[in-house]
Amino acid sequence: MNDTFLKACRGEAVPYTPVWIMRQAGRYLKQYQKIRKKVDFLTLCKTPELAAEVTIQPIDALGVDAAILFSDILIPVEAMGMKLKFLEKKGPVLTPPVRNETALKKLSVPQPETDMGFVMETIKILRKELATRVPLIGFSGAPFTTATYMIEGGTSKNFLHTKRMIFESPALYASLMSKVTTTVLEYLKAQIKAGAQAVQLFDTWAGIFSPLDYREYVFPYVREVIKSLKSWQAAENIRVPVIYFVGSCSGLLEEMRTCGADVIGIDWRINIDDAIKRLDSDLSVQGNLDPCALFMPKEKIQYRVKDILKRASSARGHIFNLGHGVLPETSAENVASMVEMVHSFSR
After folding, report:
1. Does 96 sit behind a cis peptide bond, omega within 30 degrees of 0 on the bond before it?
2. Where are the beta strands (DSSP E) in the chain?
3. Residue 79 in 3-state DSSP?
4. Which of 10, 16, 36, 303 is catalytic?
5. For the chain, domain boundaries
6. CATH T-level assignment (fold) for domain 4-346
7. Which pTM was predicted?
8. Is residue 203 helix, strand or coil?
9. What are the CA-CA distances from residue 336 to residues 22, 257, 291, 300 (Å)?
10. pLDDT tens, residue by residue, 216-228
11. Which of 28, 32, 149, 173 is catalytic?
12. Which residue among 38, 75, 204, 247 is least crowded, i.e. fewest CB within 10 A of its CB?
């Protein structure tokens, strides 16, 4: 098996820089579009054979060094008791929003193996299919980012309801975060038991905070998940790397560096060498090409790839990735070329 990705996570020597791409299984691939014409998004997530098939598609099409489970960060939220729909051109809609004690009391902490058994079944299929190929990454939304969807009822531009709860009803927020944190922890444990070889926590919306508020309202919960996950792994004699990604992370790196993760994902809004200087030297980094750079001509993509590889050379380990998910309008040919560039230039 190609274990270059896992070695980079652990800071071990690698023959080249490994690369995978957030949202690498998705709408920019014709193979994926063909399957999506037959089923809606949630059905795809909940059908293990199909979810496994689309997880593998970018391995075949792009030659990336890791697969990431095809699923959605809101699967555990639905299992907690909220109604979930995905609307075209609007995205996820969760009802009713959690904005009071009554709504909170209706939520439960799910049992991942039973309430989200289709996810574990997908992982088991993938481990068999990918056994001689590449490692499989499992994932979850981090506690705060997961909670924002629950409070807002979907995506948001200003997170007004979330911030109002935090500042006006801190006890309610703490109670919600307690349930969400336990859910995320148990969900990741179940993925690892099913066969995930690394896990990523997506804290996409944590960058909406000042360092002070991040430290108080976000960091304790993600640190609890990672610390508990690591303690459980030590007791079970398991060694699965943990990646922590924060969108708009440049103002928060000093706070993030003690979260306990093995790898910190960096978005494109900061030079990756500047991020490395501000992080702990015992951490690997992941990132950080702007997803829109893939619309450039190939010679300009080449320049950007070389620049990031050079800047990241001082890190304990580096996994090349985009600074966020690949956009649906992106040329699959350009994505495949970028992967080849990373491999070629870093050798």
Report:
1. yes
2. 67-68, 83-87, 91-95, 136-141, 198-203, 242-246, 263-265, 284-289, 318-322
3. helix
4. 36
5. 4-346
6. TIM Barrel (3.20.20)
7. 0.98
8. strand
9. 14, 32, 13, 15
10. 999 999 999 999 9
11. 149
12. 38
